Amino acid sequence: MWYNGIAKNHIKPHKERLFYMNHYTRLAWRLKREIFNFSKKICTGLKRPEEKLISNLLYGIAESGSCHLSKIGRALKEPILLKKTIERLSRGLRDFTMDDQQKLLDNYTQKIQKNIDNRTVYVIDLSEMTKPYSEKLEGLALVRDGSTGELEKGYWTFEVAALTAGTKTPLPVYDRVYSAVEDSFISEGDEVLRGLRYVSHTFGRQGIRALDRGFDALTYYEYFLKARELFIIRAKKNRDVRFKSETKNILEVANLFKGKYRIDFKDKKGNPISCKIAVIPVSLPKHPNVPLHLIAVYGFGKEPMLLMTNLQRDDKRLANTIVKVYLMRWRIEEYFRFKKQQYALEDFRVRSLNAIRTLHRVVTLLTGLIGLLSDQRNESVFVMELIEISKRIYRPKKGKANRKFLHYAIGDAFFFILRRCSVGISSFLKRPQLDSQLSFFPVA
Fold it and tell me: What's the pTM value of the predicted model, to 2 decimals?
Protein backbone atom coordinates (compact mmCIF):
# COMPACT_ATOMS: atom_id res chain seq x y z
CA MET A 1 0.00 0.00 0.00
CA TRP A 2 1.26 3.49 -0.84
CA TYR A 3 1.95 5.68 2.17
CA ASN A 4 4.79 8.18 2.55
CA GLY A 5 6.91 6.20 0.14
CA ILE A 6 7.04 2.93 2.11
CA ALA A 7 4.60 0.32 3.36
CA LYS A 8 1.78 1.65 5.52
CA ASN A 9 2.45 1.96 9.26
CA HIS A 10 6.24 1.67 8.85
CA ILE A 11 6.73 5.24 10.05
CA LYS A 12 4.49 7.94 11.42
CA PRO A 13 3.91 11.17 9.44
CA HIS A 14 5.33 13.48 12.14
CA LYS A 15 8.58 11.49 12.15
CA GLU A 16 8.95 11.54 8.38
CA ARG A 17 11.51 14.36 8.23
CA LEU A 18 13.62 12.92 11.04
CA PHE A 19 13.50 9.51 9.33
CA TYR A 20 14.99 10.84 6.10
CA MET A 21 17.57 13.03 7.84
CA ASN A 22 18.86 9.97 9.72
CA HIS A 23 18.68 7.51 6.86
CA TYR A 24 19.68 9.39 3.73
CA THR A 25 23.21 7.99 4.12
CA ARG A 26 21.79 4.48 3.93
CA LEU A 27 19.73 5.40 0.88
CA ALA A 28 22.74 7.02 -0.77
CA TRP A 29 24.84 3.90 -0.22
CA ARG A 30 22.03 1.71 -1.60
CA LEU A 31 21.62 3.96 -4.62
CA LYS A 32 25.35 3.96 -5.35
CA ARG A 33 25.31 0.18 -5.05
CA GLU A 34 22.45 -0.02 -7.55
CA ILE A 35 24.35 2.14 -10.06
CA PHE A 36 27.59 0.20 -9.52
CA ASN A 37 25.96 -3.25 -9.88
CA PHE A 38 24.07 -2.13 -12.98
CA SER A 39 27.26 -0.72 -14.48
CA LYS A 40 29.19 -3.89 -13.72
CA LYS A 41 26.61 -6.08 -15.46
CA ILE A 42 26.36 -4.01 -18.62
CA CYS A 43 30.18 -3.67 -18.80
CA THR A 44 30.80 -7.42 -18.96
CA GLY A 45 33.57 -8.03 -21.48
CA LEU A 46 34.96 -4.50 -21.33
CA LYS A 47 38.42 -3.58 -20.09
CA ARG A 48 38.91 -1.95 -16.70
CA PRO A 49 39.35 1.66 -17.94
CA GLU A 50 36.15 1.47 -20.05
CA GLU A 51 34.23 -0.07 -17.14
CA LYS A 52 35.39 2.74 -14.84
CA LEU A 53 34.42 5.35 -17.45
CA ILE A 54 30.86 4.02 -17.75
CA SER A 55 30.43 3.87 -13.97
CA ASN A 56 31.65 7.45 -13.62
CA LEU A 57 29.37 8.69 -16.39
CA LEU A 58 26.28 6.92 -15.03
CA TYR A 59 26.88 8.28 -11.54
CA GLY A 60 27.88 11.77 -12.68
CA ILE A 61 24.88 12.22 -14.96
CA ALA A 62 22.51 10.85 -12.29
CA GLU A 63 23.81 13.26 -9.63
CA SER A 64 24.28 16.37 -11.78
CA GLY A 65 21.23 15.91 -14.01
CA SER A 66 23.32 17.09 -16.94
CA CYS A 67 25.44 15.84 -19.84
CA HIS A 68 28.03 18.59 -19.36
CA LEU A 69 31.39 16.99 -18.63
CA SER A 70 32.21 19.80 -16.18
CA LYS A 71 29.10 19.06 -14.10
CA ILE A 72 29.73 15.33 -14.30
CA GLY A 73 33.30 15.94 -13.13
CA ARG A 74 32.13 18.00 -10.16
CA ALA A 75 29.66 15.27 -9.21
CA LEU A 76 32.46 12.67 -9.09
CA LYS A 77 34.22 14.71 -6.36
CA GLU A 78 37.65 13.34 -7.23
CA PRO A 79 40.73 14.59 -5.28
CA ILE A 80 42.37 15.93 -8.45
CA LEU A 81 42.02 19.03 -10.58
CA LEU A 82 38.59 19.28 -12.23
CA LYS A 83 40.35 20.01 -15.52
CA LYS A 84 42.08 16.61 -15.38
CA THR A 85 38.78 14.83 -14.70
CA ILE A 86 37.13 16.54 -17.67
CA GLU A 87 40.05 15.66 -19.94
CA ARG A 88 39.88 12.00 -18.88
CA LEU A 89 36.11 11.82 -19.49
CA SER A 90 36.44 13.57 -22.85
CA ARG A 91 39.23 11.26 -23.94
CA GLY A 92 37.30 8.20 -22.80
CA LEU A 93 34.17 9.21 -24.73
CA ARG A 94 36.17 9.94 -27.87
CA ASP A 95 38.10 6.66 -27.80
CA PHE A 96 35.20 4.40 -26.77
CA THR A 97 34.93 2.00 -29.72
CA MET A 98 31.79 1.01 -31.60
CA ASP A 99 32.35 -2.60 -30.55
CA ASP A 100 32.36 -1.59 -26.89
CA GLN A 101 29.19 0.46 -27.43
CA GLN A 102 27.58 -2.64 -28.90
CA LYS A 103 28.70 -4.76 -25.94
CA LEU A 104 27.02 -2.29 -23.59
CA LEU A 105 23.74 -2.59 -25.47
CA ASP A 106 23.96 -6.39 -25.76
CA ASN A 107 24.64 -6.83 -22.03
CA TYR A 108 21.80 -4.46 -21.16
CA THR A 109 19.26 -6.19 -23.40
CA GLN A 110 20.24 -9.54 -21.90
CA LYS A 111 19.56 -8.09 -18.45
CA ILE A 112 16.02 -6.97 -19.35
CA GLN A 113 15.04 -10.22 -21.11
CA LYS A 114 12.90 -11.22 -18.12
CA ASN A 115 10.82 -8.03 -18.54
CA ILE A 116 9.92 -8.93 -22.15
CA ASP A 117 7.14 -11.33 -23.17
CA ASN A 118 4.43 -11.75 -25.82
CA ARG A 119 2.41 -8.89 -24.31
CA THR A 120 5.26 -6.39 -24.72
CA VAL A 121 4.72 -3.48 -27.09
CA TYR A 122 7.77 -2.17 -28.95
CA VAL A 123 7.35 1.46 -29.96
CA ILE A 124 9.61 2.62 -32.79
CA ASP A 125 10.47 6.29 -32.95
CA LEU A 126 12.59 8.52 -35.19
CA SER A 127 13.64 11.79 -33.55
CA GLU A 128 16.39 14.37 -33.65
CA MET A 129 18.90 16.30 -31.54
CA THR A 130 19.29 19.88 -32.75
CA LYS A 131 22.40 22.05 -32.35
CA PRO A 132 21.42 25.21 -34.29
CA TYR A 133 24.36 27.34 -33.15
CA SER A 134 27.15 24.77 -33.40
CA GLU A 135 29.86 25.04 -36.01
CA LYS A 136 32.62 22.60 -35.05
CA LEU A 137 30.70 19.40 -34.27
CA GLU A 138 31.57 16.42 -36.43
CA GLY A 139 28.96 15.31 -38.97
CA LEU A 140 26.45 18.14 -38.49
CA ALA A 141 23.59 17.85 -40.97
CA LEU A 142 20.17 19.41 -41.48
CA VAL A 143 17.34 17.79 -39.52
CA ARG A 144 13.73 18.80 -39.05
CA ASP A 145 13.04 19.98 -35.53
CA GLY A 146 9.92 18.16 -34.36
CA SER A 147 8.91 20.97 -31.99
CA THR A 148 9.11 23.83 -34.51
CA GLY A 149 8.97 22.10 -37.90
CA GLU A 150 11.99 24.12 -39.03
CA LEU A 151 15.21 22.75 -40.55
CA GLU A 152 18.09 23.01 -38.07
CA LYS A 153 21.61 21.63 -37.73
CA GLY A 154 21.81 18.46 -35.70
CA TYR A 155 21.64 14.66 -35.73
CA TRP A 156 18.97 12.05 -36.28
CA THR A 157 18.22 9.48 -33.58
CA PHE A 158 16.43 6.17 -34.01
CA GLU A 159 15.17 4.45 -30.88
CA VAL A 160 13.06 1.47 -29.87
CA ALA A 161 11.45 1.27 -26.43
CA ALA A 162 9.46 -1.60 -24.94
CA LEU A 163 6.36 -1.18 -22.77
CA THR A 164 6.38 -3.83 -20.04
CA ALA A 165 3.19 -5.86 -19.74
CA GLY A 166 2.52 -5.24 -16.04
CA THR A 167 3.23 -1.59 -15.25
CA LYS A 168 3.50 -0.34 -18.87
CA THR A 169 6.94 1.05 -18.03
CA PRO A 170 9.04 2.14 -21.05
CA LEU A 171 12.39 0.35 -21.27
CA PRO A 172 14.83 1.35 -24.03
CA VAL A 173 16.02 -1.60 -26.12
CA TYR A 174 17.86 0.12 -28.99
CA ASP A 175 19.27 3.55 -29.77
CA ARG A 176 21.49 5.01 -32.47
CA VAL A 177 22.62 8.53 -33.35
CA TYR A 178 23.49 9.02 -37.01
CA SER A 179 24.28 11.80 -39.44
CA ALA A 180 23.17 12.05 -43.04
CA VAL A 181 26.59 13.35 -44.10
CA GLU A 182 28.81 10.63 -42.63
CA ASP A 183 30.46 8.28 -45.11
CA SER A 184 28.76 5.12 -43.81
CA PHE A 185 25.25 6.59 -44.10
CA ILE A 186 23.06 4.94 -46.77
CA SER A 187 19.50 6.03 -46.06
CA GLU A 188 16.99 6.56 -43.28
CA GLY A 189 15.32 3.27 -44.19
CA ASP A 190 18.61 1.42 -43.79
CA GLU A 191 19.06 2.86 -40.28
CA VAL A 192 15.50 1.87 -39.33
CA LEU A 193 15.90 -1.67 -40.68
CA ARG A 194 19.18 -2.03 -38.78
CA GLY A 195 17.36 -1.28 -35.54
CA LEU A 196 14.43 -3.57 -36.37
CA ARG A 197 16.80 -6.43 -37.16
CA TYR A 198 18.56 -5.94 -33.84
CA VAL A 199 15.26 -6.15 -31.94
CA SER A 200 14.29 -9.27 -33.92
CA HIS A 201 17.65 -10.90 -33.29
CA THR A 202 17.61 -10.09 -29.57
CA PHE A 203 13.97 -10.71 -28.61
CA GLY A 204 12.66 -12.86 -31.44
CA ARG A 205 9.08 -12.51 -32.72
CA GLN A 206 7.45 -11.97 -29.33
CA GLY A 207 5.52 -8.76 -28.72
CA ILE A 208 3.90 -6.22 -31.03
CA ARG A 209 5.66 -3.46 -33.00
CA ALA A 210 3.84 -0.10 -32.95
CA LEU A 211 4.86 2.56 -35.48
CA ASP A 212 3.59 6.03 -36.36
CA ARG A 213 2.69 7.45 -39.77
CA GLY A 214 6.29 8.16 -40.67
CA PHE A 215 6.81 4.40 -41.05
CA ASP A 216 3.81 3.82 -43.32
CA ALA A 217 5.96 2.52 -46.19
CA LEU A 218 5.97 -0.71 -48.16
CA THR A 219 9.54 -1.46 -47.01
CA TYR A 220 8.47 -1.87 -43.39
CA TYR A 221 5.30 -3.83 -44.21
CA GLU A 222 7.37 -6.29 -46.21
CA TYR A 223 9.97 -6.58 -43.47
CA PHE A 224 7.39 -7.46 -40.77
CA LEU A 225 5.51 -9.86 -43.05
CA LYS A 226 8.71 -11.66 -44.03
CA ALA A 227 9.87 -11.85 -40.41
CA ARG A 228 6.36 -12.95 -39.31
CA GLU A 229 6.23 -10.29 -36.63
CA LEU A 230 3.04 -8.64 -35.37
CA PHE A 231 2.78 -4.92 -36.11
CA ILE A 232 0.49 -1.91 -35.85
CA ILE A 233 1.21 0.99 -38.20
CA ARG A 234 -0.77 4.21 -38.27
CA ALA A 235 -1.58 4.70 -41.94
CA LYS A 236 -1.48 7.90 -43.93
CA LYS A 237 -4.66 9.19 -45.56
CA ASN A 238 -3.23 8.77 -49.07
CA ARG A 239 -2.53 5.03 -48.79
CA ASP A 240 -4.24 2.66 -51.21
CA VAL A 241 -5.51 -0.75 -50.10
CA ARG A 242 -7.27 -3.71 -51.69
CA PHE A 243 -10.86 -3.96 -50.51
CA LYS A 244 -13.30 -6.47 -52.04
CA SER A 245 -10.94 -7.12 -54.97
CA GLU A 246 -10.66 -3.40 -55.77
CA THR A 247 -7.90 -0.88 -55.09
CA LYS A 248 -9.30 2.05 -53.13
CA ASN A 249 -8.08 4.92 -50.99
CA ILE A 250 -7.88 3.87 -47.36
CA LEU A 251 -9.92 6.85 -46.12
CA GLU A 252 -12.69 6.11 -48.63
CA VAL A 253 -12.85 2.55 -47.32
CA ALA A 254 -13.00 3.74 -43.71
CA ASN A 255 -15.85 6.16 -44.52
CA LEU A 256 -17.99 3.24 -45.69
CA PHE A 257 -18.32 2.13 -42.06
CA LYS A 258 -19.55 3.76 -38.87
CA GLY A 259 -18.03 1.48 -36.26
CA LYS A 260 -19.36 -1.79 -34.87
CA TYR A 261 -17.65 -1.73 -31.50
CA ARG A 262 -17.36 0.90 -28.82
CA ILE A 263 -14.50 1.50 -26.42
CA ASP A 264 -14.35 3.87 -23.44
CA PHE A 265 -11.05 4.89 -21.85
CA LYS A 266 -9.24 7.84 -20.29
CA ASP A 267 -6.38 9.81 -21.78
CA LYS A 268 -3.16 10.68 -19.93
CA LYS A 269 -4.90 13.64 -18.25
CA GLY A 270 -7.76 11.47 -17.02
CA ASN A 271 -10.35 12.85 -19.43
CA PRO A 272 -12.94 10.26 -20.57
CA ILE A 273 -12.94 9.39 -24.28
CA SER A 274 -15.52 7.32 -26.11
CA CYS A 275 -14.96 6.13 -29.66
CA LYS A 276 -16.29 3.58 -32.13
CA ILE A 277 -14.22 1.06 -34.04
CA ALA A 278 -14.58 -0.80 -37.30
CA VAL A 279 -12.49 -3.85 -38.24
CA ILE A 280 -12.15 -4.05 -42.03
CA PRO A 281 -10.38 -6.88 -43.88
CA VAL A 282 -7.98 -5.42 -46.47
CA SER A 283 -4.66 -6.16 -48.14
CA LEU A 284 -1.83 -4.28 -49.79
CA PRO A 285 -2.04 -3.79 -53.59
CA LYS A 286 1.39 -5.36 -54.04
CA HIS A 287 0.51 -8.30 -51.77
CA PRO A 288 -3.19 -8.96 -52.40
CA ASN A 289 -3.06 -12.49 -50.98
CA VAL A 290 -1.69 -11.45 -47.58
CA PRO A 291 -4.66 -10.68 -45.29
CA LEU A 292 -4.44 -7.57 -43.12
CA HIS A 293 -6.90 -5.59 -41.03
CA LEU A 294 -7.71 -1.92 -41.23
CA ILE A 295 -8.84 -0.59 -37.86
CA ALA A 296 -10.81 2.62 -38.27
CA VAL A 297 -11.25 4.54 -35.00
CA TYR A 298 -14.03 7.15 -35.05
CA GLY A 299 -14.27 9.88 -32.44
CA PHE A 300 -10.79 11.44 -32.29
CA GLY A 301 -11.58 14.13 -34.85
CA LYS A 302 -13.38 14.86 -38.09
CA GLU A 303 -11.57 12.00 -39.83
CA PRO A 304 -11.04 8.53 -38.38
CA MET A 305 -7.68 7.30 -37.13
CA LEU A 306 -6.46 4.52 -39.43
CA LEU A 307 -4.36 1.62 -38.18
CA MET A 308 -3.01 -1.24 -40.29
CA THR A 309 -2.16 -4.54 -38.62
CA ASN A 310 -1.53 -8.21 -39.31
CA LEU A 311 -3.09 -9.34 -36.04
CA GLN A 312 -5.61 -12.02 -36.92
CA ARG A 313 -8.57 -12.56 -34.59
CA ASP A 314 -12.24 -13.21 -35.19
CA ASP A 315 -13.88 -11.29 -32.37
CA LYS A 316 -14.17 -7.72 -31.08
CA ARG A 317 -11.11 -8.12 -28.84
CA LEU A 318 -9.05 -7.44 -31.94
CA ALA A 319 -10.21 -3.82 -32.09
CA ASN A 320 -9.83 -3.21 -28.36
CA THR A 321 -6.35 -4.73 -28.28
CA ILE A 322 -5.09 -2.74 -31.24
CA VAL A 323 -6.43 0.63 -30.12
CA LYS A 324 -5.20 0.21 -26.55
CA VAL A 325 -1.79 -0.89 -27.78
CA TYR A 326 -1.43 2.14 -30.06
CA LEU A 327 -2.76 4.60 -27.52
CA MET A 328 0.00 3.51 -25.11
CA ARG A 329 2.36 5.53 -27.31
CA TRP A 330 1.92 8.58 -25.08
CA ARG A 331 4.04 6.86 -22.43
CA ILE A 332 6.83 6.42 -24.93
CA GLU A 333 6.55 10.06 -25.98
CA GLU A 334 6.81 10.99 -22.30
CA TYR A 335 9.86 8.74 -22.03
CA PHE A 336 11.62 10.53 -24.92
CA ARG A 337 10.72 13.90 -23.42
CA PHE A 338 12.11 12.81 -20.05
CA LYS A 339 15.36 11.64 -21.60
CA LYS A 340 15.92 14.99 -23.31
CA GLN A 341 14.76 17.27 -20.50
CA GLN A 342 15.95 15.52 -17.33
CA TYR A 343 19.56 15.30 -18.48
CA ALA A 344 19.67 18.16 -21.02
CA LEU A 345 20.60 15.65 -23.71
CA GLU A 346 20.58 18.20 -26.54
CA ASP A 347 22.95 20.45 -24.59
CA PHE A 348 25.93 18.10 -24.80
CA ARG A 349 29.41 19.63 -25.14
CA VAL A 350 31.46 17.00 -26.95
CA ARG A 351 32.56 17.36 -30.57
CA SER A 352 33.30 13.99 -32.16
CA LEU A 353 30.42 11.90 -33.48
CA ASN A 354 31.71 8.84 -31.65
CA ALA A 355 31.73 10.75 -28.34
CA ILE A 356 28.16 11.91 -29.01
CA ARG A 357 27.06 8.34 -29.67
CA THR A 358 28.76 7.06 -26.52
CA LEU A 359 27.22 9.80 -24.37
CA HIS A 360 23.79 9.16 -25.88
CA ARG A 361 24.17 5.43 -25.18
CA VAL A 362 25.09 6.08 -21.54
CA VAL A 363 22.05 8.35 -21.04
CA THR A 364 19.88 5.66 -22.65
CA LEU A 365 21.25 3.03 -20.26
CA LEU A 366 20.72 5.31 -17.24
CA THR A 367 17.13 5.79 -18.36
CA GLY A 368 16.90 2.00 -18.62
CA LEU A 369 18.06 1.67 -14.99
CA ILE A 370 15.37 4.14 -13.93
CA GLY A 371 12.82 2.14 -15.93
CA LEU A 372 13.85 -1.10 -14.21
CA LEU A 373 13.43 0.55 -10.81
CA SER A 374 10.09 1.99 -11.87
CA ASP A 375 8.92 -1.47 -12.89
CA GLN A 376 9.43 -2.55 -9.25
CA ARG A 377 7.15 0.16 -7.89
CA ASN A 378 4.78 -2.35 -6.27
CA GLU A 379 7.47 -4.69 -4.94
CA SER A 380 10.43 -2.71 -3.62
CA VAL A 381 10.31 -0.58 -0.46
CA PHE A 382 13.51 1.09 -1.67
CA VAL A 383 11.74 2.31 -4.84
CA MET A 384 8.82 3.56 -2.75
CA GLU A 385 11.28 5.55 -0.63
CA LEU A 386 12.81 7.08 -3.77
CA ILE A 387 9.39 8.17 -4.98
CA GLU A 388 8.55 9.71 -1.61
CA ILE A 389 11.86 11.62 -1.46
CA SER A 390 11.09 13.19 -4.86
CA LYS A 391 8.15 15.03 -3.20
CA ARG A 392 5.57 14.60 -5.95
CA ILE A 393 2.57 16.92 -5.83
CA TYR A 394 0.26 14.05 -6.71
CA ARG A 395 1.44 10.84 -5.11
CA PRO A 396 0.61 7.45 -6.64
CA LYS A 397 -2.52 6.03 -5.05
CA LYS A 398 -3.36 2.45 -4.28
CA GLY A 399 -4.63 0.68 -7.40
CA LYS A 400 -3.50 3.54 -9.66
CA ALA A 401 0.28 3.35 -9.28
CA ASN A 402 0.66 1.46 -12.55
CA ARG A 403 -0.86 4.39 -14.47
CA LYS A 404 1.82 6.81 -13.35
CA PHE A 405 4.94 7.66 -15.31
CA LEU A 406 7.47 7.61 -12.48
CA HIS A 407 10.72 8.34 -14.34
CA TYR A 408 10.70 11.98 -13.25
CA ALA A 409 10.14 11.01 -9.61
CA ILE A 410 12.99 8.48 -9.54
CA GLY A 411 15.30 10.75 -11.55
CA ASP A 412 14.70 13.59 -9.09
CA ALA A 413 15.31 11.24 -6.17
CA PHE A 414 18.70 10.33 -7.68
CA PHE A 415 19.59 14.03 -7.73
CA PHE A 416 18.27 14.85 -4.24
CA ILE A 417 20.07 11.94 -2.55
CA LEU A 418 23.41 11.88 -4.38
CA ARG A 419 24.04 15.64 -4.24
CA ARG A 420 24.26 15.42 -0.45
CA CYS A 421 27.14 12.94 -0.57
CA SER A 422 30.61 14.20 0.22
CA VAL A 423 32.23 11.52 -1.98
CA GLY A 424 31.34 10.10 -5.37
CA ILE A 425 31.36 6.51 -6.52
CA SER A 426 35.13 6.06 -6.39
CA SER A 427 35.00 3.88 -3.27
CA PHE A 428 33.01 1.25 -5.18
CA LEU A 429 35.51 1.22 -8.05
CA LYS A 430 38.59 0.54 -5.93
CA ARG A 431 39.84 -3.00 -6.01
CA PRO A 432 40.06 -4.48 -2.50
CA GLN A 433 43.59 -4.73 -1.12
CA LEU A 434 44.36 -8.27 -0.04
CA ASP A 435 45.96 -8.45 3.43
CA SER A 436 48.37 -11.34 3.75
CA GLN A 437 49.41 -10.59 7.33
CA LEU A 438 47.40 -13.44 8.86
CA SER A 439 47.78 -15.79 5.91
CA PHE A 440 49.92 -18.91 6.18
CA PHE A 441 50.78 -18.69 2.52
CA PRO A 442 51.87 -15.67 0.47
CA VAL A 443 49.17 -14.05 -1.67
CA ALA A 444 50.01 -13.76 -5.37
Answer: 0.87
